[in-house]
Amino acid sequence: MPQPHPARASARHAVLEDTRPAVARRDAEGARRKTQARLEIELQAPARASTHPLACARGCAMCCHLRVAAMPVEVLGVVQYLRGRLSPDELATRVDLVRDTAERVSALPRGQLLSTNIPCPMLDADGACGIYPARPLNCRAYHSLDIEACRNAFGNPGNLSATHPQSEWISAINSGAQEGLRQGLATMGRDTTQYEFVTALAEALDDPVCARRHDAGQPVFRNAVRL
């Protein structure tokens, strides 16, 4: 049996330690914030040491047309961020865009869900992320070592074999960090299901009961696509 990557176990342990006080307080949002901060720290070392520099840069938004898996605590954190940072008019505009995008995603046959380019409604006109400080863990760790491979995959979304090279270390760190957060959330009895981000965000923005279900330890989303 292959041994797990050492970076995975290290990141999991670090997240468990960092989130221990929040878990003891049953503070899921605090655990999310601590996990995101720890992931950023853990990702710095392999990014600096890599012999193959990351091909990612601000304004390169091809990956922002893919479907993202996120836990309810991450989705609810984005809702909190949007409501705390946007004016009422800005929020209304963004919510409309989220709803429209969620409808497009929900209408896709299951077999086309991961093979259709649909821009994230959080993507700004300049190609930057509109929720960068609050973006999900999978967005934080997603990366490429080859821009040409990204262009090829983006231009051929139906060909799932058209992928791009990634750092084994970065992928392992992301997996470990998410395992640590899931363990802490499970200790609190919270839903750790992976939902498609946009459809879950649309439901969370429209239905305040989602947050109450999360706090009560119930399945959070009724209509969001599961990944």
Summarize the structure.
With 227 residues, this protein is an all-alpha fold. It has nine helices and two strands. Helices cover 56% and strands 2% of the residues.
List keywords for this structure.
two-stranded antiparallel sheet, 56% helix, 227 residues, 2% strand, mainly alpha, 2 strands
Distance between the termini: 27 Å
Number of helices: 9
Name the poorly predicted regions. none
Estimate the helix proportion, in percent.
55-70%
Element order: H for helix, E for strand: HHEHHHHHEHH
Which strand order does the major sheet show?
1-2
Sum up the overall morphology in one term. Answer: globular
Work out the radius of gyration.
17 Å
Classify the secondary structure makeup into a structural class: mainly alpha
SS strand fraction: under 5%
Mean pLDDT: 94
* Biggest sheet statistics: 2 strands, antiparallel
* Count of β-strands: 2
Structure description:
With about 230 residues, the protein is an all-alpha fold. The chain is about 55% helix and about 0% strand. The chain contains 9 helices and 2 strands, in the order ααβαααααβαα. A two-stranded antiparallel ribbon has the order 1-2. α1 packs antiparallel against α2, α1 runs parallel beside α7 and α4 crosses α8. The longest helix has 22 residues. The protein starts with 5 loop residues before the first helix and ends in a 12-residue tail after the last helix. The relative contact order is 0.22. The mean pLDDT is about 95.
Draw up the topology in text.
Blueprint: H1 6-24, H2 28-49, E1 69-70, H3 72-85, H4 88-107, H5 137-141, H6 147-155, H7 168-187, E2 195-196, H8 197-206, H9 209-215
Antiparallel strand pairs: 1-2
Helix pairs in contact: 1-2, 1-7, 2-7, 3-8, 4-8
